[in-house]
C-alpha cells in the first residue's frame, strides 16, 4: 500500500510545485531529448517522492529542497533511460538464429541485431525517433505529436539515424520507402 501524503502539507507541496514545475519540466525535457510528455510525467513522480519525504524536506532550506528535487528528477530520467536500454537489449539480445533458419535469414537477423546495437548508441532524441519509427512503426506525424517536435525534425532525426546505420554497417542496410519519405517504391537502399 502506498503511503498517504499528510493533508497538512498539501498547500506547501502545491506551492513548491507551482514554483518549480516549469524549470523541472524544461530540465527533464532537455535530458530526455524533447519528450515533453515523459518530462511532465517524471516531474509528477518527483513531486510524489518529495511529498512522501516532505516531513524531512520542509525543514530544509529552499535551495536544498530545489537541489533534492533536481537530483531525484535526474535519477528518474536515468531510470527511464535504463528501462529503454533494457527494452532494446531484450529485443537485440534474443537468440536470433534458430536451427530452422536459412543462412540468408540468419544473416538478416544478425544484421538486425547489429542495427539495434547501433540505434542504442545514438543520441537520445535520435534514438527515440528511430525506435518509434522502426520498432513501433509509428508515422512521422504520430512521432512529432508524441514528442512535441516538428515533423521536419522527425525527418532530420530519421535521416541522421539512417546515415549512422549505413556508416556503421555498410550499404547492406535497406529501408522500406515508407520509412524514407522519399516517394513511391517498394524498397530503397539508403
From TrEMBL:
InterPro entries in the cross-refs: RNA_pol_sigma-70-like, RNA_pol_sigma-70_dom, RNA_pol_sigma70_r2, RNA_pol_sigma_r2, RNA_pol_sigma_r3/r4-like, WH-like_DNA-bd_sf
Keywords for this protein: DNA-binding, Sigma factor, Transcription, Transcription regulation
Keyword Magnesium part of the UniProt annotation: no
Source taxon at top rank: Bacteria
RNA polymerase sigma-70 region domain ranges (all copies): 17-86
Keyword Phosphoprotein: no
MF GO annotations: DNA binding; sigma factor activity
Gene Ontology biological-process annotations: DNA-templated transcription initiation
Entry's family note: Belongs to the sigma-70 factor family. ECF subfamily.
UniProt-listed PANTHER family: RNA POLYMERASE ECF-TYPE SIGMA FACTO, RNA POLYMERASE SIGMA FACTOR HI_1459-RELATED
Record-given protein name: RNA polymerase sigma-70 region 2 domain-containing protein
Amino acid at each position: 500500500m502506498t503511503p498517504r501524503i499528510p493533508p497538512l502539507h498539501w498547500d506547501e507541496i502545491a506551492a513548491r510545485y507551482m514554483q518549480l514545475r516549469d524549470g523541472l519540466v524544461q530540465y527533464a525535457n532537455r535530458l530526455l531529448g524533447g519528450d515533453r510528455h515523459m518530462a511532465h510525467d517524471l516531474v509528477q513522480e518527483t513531486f510524489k517522492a518529495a511529498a512522501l519525504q516532505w516531513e524531512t524536506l520542509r525543514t530544509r532550506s529552499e535551495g536544498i529542497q530545489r537541489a533534492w528535487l533536481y537530483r531525484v528528477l535526474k535519477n528518474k530520467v536515468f531510470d527511464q533511460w535504463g528501462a529503454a536500454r533494457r527494452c532494446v537489449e531484450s529485443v537485440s539480445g534474443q537468440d536470433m538464429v534458430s536451427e530452422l533458419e536459412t543462412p540468408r535469414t540468419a544473416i538478416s537477423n544478425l544484421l538486425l541485431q547489429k542495427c539495434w546495437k547501433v540505434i542504442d548508441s545514438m543520441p537520445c532524441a535520435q534514438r527515440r525517433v528511430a525506435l518509434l519509427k522502426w520498432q513501433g512503426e509509428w508515422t512521422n506525424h504520430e512521432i512529432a505529436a508524441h514528442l512535441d517536435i516538428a515533423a521536419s525534425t522527425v525527418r532530420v532525426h530519421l535521416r541522421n539515424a539512417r546515415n549512422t546505420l549505413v556508416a556503421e554497417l555498410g550499404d547492406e542496410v535497406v529501408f522500406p520507402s515508407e520509412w524514407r519519405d522519399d516517394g513511391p517504391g517498394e524498397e530503397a537502399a539508403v
